[in-house]
Structure formats: structure tokens, C-alpha cells
Protein: (S)-2-hydroxy-acid oxidase
Organism: Spirodela intermedia
Amino acid sequence: MIEAPILVAPTGMHRLAHPEGEVATARAAASCNTIMVLSFTSNCTIEEVAASCDAVRFFQLYVYKRRDIAAELVKRAERHGYKAVVVTGDTPRLGRREADIKNKMVAPRLRNLEGLLSVEVESGGGSNLQAFASQTHDDSLSWKDMAWLKSITSLPILIKGVLTAEDGCGSGLNGVIVSNHGARQLDYAPASLSVLEEVAEAVAGSVPVLFDGGIRRGTDVFKALALGAKAVMVGRPVVFGLAAKGEQGVRRVVEILKDELELTMTLAGCPTIDAISRSHVRTEQERLRSFM
Ligand SMILES: Cc1cc2nc3c(=O)[nH]c(=O)nc-3n(C[C@H](O)[C@H](O)[C@H](O)COP(=O)(O)O)c2cc1C
Ligand SMILES: CCCCCCCCCCC(=O)C(=O)O
């Protein structure tokens, strides 16, 4: 049981933010008694993160054209005590990251993949991240592949990147994560908060619905829970905390969110998480309707 419904979202390459990388993030998550979702594109390995501290961890998966690689990493995560697989469904190709291309982004090595495929990438004068993703990610990924994923693991599977009611209730998996990938994939994809309620209604409690995107304050956590999320995940603020002060910085980010959530609950008259209800928030549409 985690202390607050606030998880660490999978974000790639933590050594870009701090030399200790994902190990520092994992230790912070463990000391805050929360769950870290380790990115497939981590700089520290699945094993290093598992050995760094005692905590519940999930493993995020990108499905590669080379299914043997995806399967191998899932098996390693399973062997090292990760408790669930989060399959990211919104990145069959990487969105066009113009800043990365312009800046000729050079991503550090993905050490999980050493010995499985060449991690040296020719960027063609642009971003090596973009080049690597287009060589490796399976752009034909679809729902039928979830049967394959189920066949290779006994861990619960959550699908990340759901933005419609249809996808939410059609997944047949163990959990749904409403997310637009931090608006990094497709311009004009809806804000994840704007679709949370319709997805949660469609799922109707059959599996947990998690949420990410723009959680910056405890009030944001509260709003997401009121609109149907069981828990939220936090992406950028964790990376900012890591860059600022390593493990301690990540811990501080999670603590601030927890404290703010607690204050929000108290002021909204909610003694428990379960007491947070739909009637605690008013959407912009509802506000406008109230004038009519
Ligand atoms: C720098 C960065 C790296 C990310 N890497 C991954 C990744 O490896 N796998 C993944 O599923 N999502 C990735 N995401 C998306 C996050 O999991 C999450 O959906 C998003 O950041 C949530 O929004 P927030 O940053 O506003 O909290 C990344 C996001 C950022 C900002
Ligand atoms: C040269 C190795 C880098 C390969 C990275 C491939 C894609 C990473 C995508 C991470 C992500 O989801 C995000 O940045 O968003």
C-alpha cells in the first residue's frame, strides 16, 4: 500500500539530469513510500535500480520491432521483482521533436540494451534519439499485440497513453493510464485532464484508471482524483527535482505534492482519499452552463 496516490511516471535517461540517474530517483521514491515506473529508456539498468533500494517498482515497456528484446527486458524486470508492466501505446513512432533535431540531441546510451542490439546510432545530422526510435520502435503496434504481451508475462499490465473512452474500456488489461505523453507526441492531442472523466466513466471501475499530465500541485492531484483517477503519475517535476538536488530533490518534489494534497483535502472537507468525489470540482463547461 503506498502512502499517497502519487507515482513517479516513466521518464527516460535520468543521467541527463543527474549523474546518479534512475538509482537516485528510485531511492527517493522508496523513501517516500511510493512507486517508481522505470522507463524502458533508462540509463541505469533494471538490475541496478532493483538493487539500489527496497521498493515497489513497475517497468515501462516500448514494444520494439525486435520482440525478443522487449520480451527479454520484461523477463528481467519480472526476475528482479518489478510488480507490473506499463506498456506505452502512444509511441509507435516518436513525435517530431523539432528542438531535439535542431539541437542535434545526443542521448546517452541505454544500458539495458547492451549486448542485445547496437546502441551506437548515426543521427544523420539531427537527433540520435529520433534516429534510434525510428530504427527500433514497432510502428505497427496495435491492440492485437497485447495478446502477445500477456503471453510473455504473468505480471499485471497497464496501458499508458489512453485518451478515449473506447480505448479505455476495450483494453482487456489490468489498468489504464490516461496520458498524452506530456504533450510530447502529437500536437493537438487533447489535454489528458479534459478526457479523464469520459475514460473513467467508460472503464466504470472495472480496472484502475491512472492519470498523468500537468500535475504540478496538490490541487492538481485532487482534481484528477475527483474526475475519476485512482492515482496520478508525475513526470517533469521529478526530473526537475533530480536535476536540482538528486535523490533529495526528487524526495522534496513528492513531499511537496503530498503535503499540498493533504492541505487541499482538509480544506475541501475530505478526511480520506475515498471522500474526494466528483462534486468537489467544477469544470469550465459546468461553470459556463451555470451562467445560462
Ligand atoms: C523528459 C521526458 C521523458 C519521458 N520519457 C518517457 C518514457 O521513457 N516512457 C514513457 O512512457 N513516457 C515518457 N515520458 C512521458 C511521461 O511518462 C509522462 O506521460 C509525462 O511526462 C506526464 O506529464 P508531466 O511531465 O506534465 O507530469 C517522458 C516525459 C518527459 C518529460
Ligand atoms: C540513443 C539512445 C536513445 C534512444 C531513445 C529512444 C526514444 C526515447 C523516448 C523517451 C520518451 O518517451 C520521451 O522522451 O518522451
Summary: The chain has one domain: 6-93+137-289.
